[in-house]
């Protein structure tokens, strides 16, 4: 178990069920205090499962897995999240290899795809979810850029094979939706979810951007 920021919350303790450094960074950005407890789950889709059902189920399963495996202590809530891309109703997951990635990027070139991010908050007798959806339009991507981008090492662990927060930004012509949702944790709706559950945001008052 890994500690992140000061965790001495008077009431509820939040546990982020994620290994993603981006999700930790986003939660810290809005001044939430939490602990990190990454879990590994099977992320394969069920037959006939829709993209939104898949992303919501995986967010819930990550939060539930952390809830079950974490030492039994009262007043803990577990936050799980999942992100996938979607093009022509087909899921754009993390690329399995270069060929998978290249074919994905060629299809995304010059077109608009969707990014779905689901967030689940789970505790004893408590479960709430949100689903965030954004549209991302790519400019035309040159063939040589596909290989160069792959060798940067950035696409490998990202849904849709790119990071809008990194080098992948140069492909992004337009977004409609939530930037933080595309990166992996939609902050506006996550903050609402946390507030509803009684977890404070903006704990860090001195924070300067
Ligand atoms: C589209 C896009 C995705 N991503 C990332 C967000 C997610 O971390 C990742 C999708 O994989 P996920 O399976 O959602 O998350 P993860 O494996 O990184 O972490 P964990 O399951 O432990 O929470 O893709 C970006 O960082 N930038 C982007 O622009």
TrEMBL record:
Pfam families: Maf. It comes from the Bacteria. Its cofactor is a divalent metal cation. InterPro entries: ITPase-like_fam, Maf-like. Keywords: Cytoplasm, Hydrolase, Nucleotide metabolism. One of its GO terms (biological process) is nucleotide metabolic process. It is found in: Cytoplasm. It catalyses: UTP + H2O = UMP + diphosphate + H(+); dTTP + H2O = dTMP + diphosphate + H(+). GO terms for molecular function: dTTP diphosphatase activity; UTP diphosphatase activity. The record marks 22, 83, 165 as: Important for substrate specificity. Belongs to the Maf family. YhdE subfamily. Nucleoside triphosphate pyrophosphatase that hydrolyzes dTTP and UTP. May have a dual role in cell division arrest and in preventing the incorporation of modified nucleotides into cellular nucleic acids. This is dTTP/UTP pyrophosphatase.
């Amino acid at each position: 178990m890994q500690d992140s920021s000061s965790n001495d919350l008077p009431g509820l303790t939040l546990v982020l069920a994620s290994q993603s450094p981006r999700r930790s960074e986003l939660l810290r950005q809005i001044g939430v205090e939490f602990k990190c407890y990454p879990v590994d789950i099977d992320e394969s889709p069920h037959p006939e499962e829709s993209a939104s059902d898949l992303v919501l189920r995986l967010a819930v399963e990550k939060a539930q897995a952390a809830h079950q495996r974490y030492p039994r202590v009262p007043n803990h809530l577990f936050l799980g999240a999942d992100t996938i891309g979607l093009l022509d109703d087909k899921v754009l997951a993390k690329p399995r290899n270069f060929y998978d990635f290249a074919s994905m990027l060629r299809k995304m070139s010059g077109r608009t795809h969707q990014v779905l991010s689901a967030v689940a908050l789970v505790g004893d007798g408590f479960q709430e979810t949100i689903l965030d959806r954004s549209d991302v339009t790519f400019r035309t991507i040159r063939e040589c850029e596909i290989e160069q981008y792959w060798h940067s090492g950035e696409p490998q662990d990202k849904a849709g094979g790119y990071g809008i927060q990194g080098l992948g930004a140069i492909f992004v012509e337009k977004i409609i939706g939530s930037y933080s949702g595309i990166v992996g944790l939609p902050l506006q709706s996550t903050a609402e979810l946390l507030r509803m559950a009684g977890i404070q945001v903006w704990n860090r008052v001195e924070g300067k951007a």
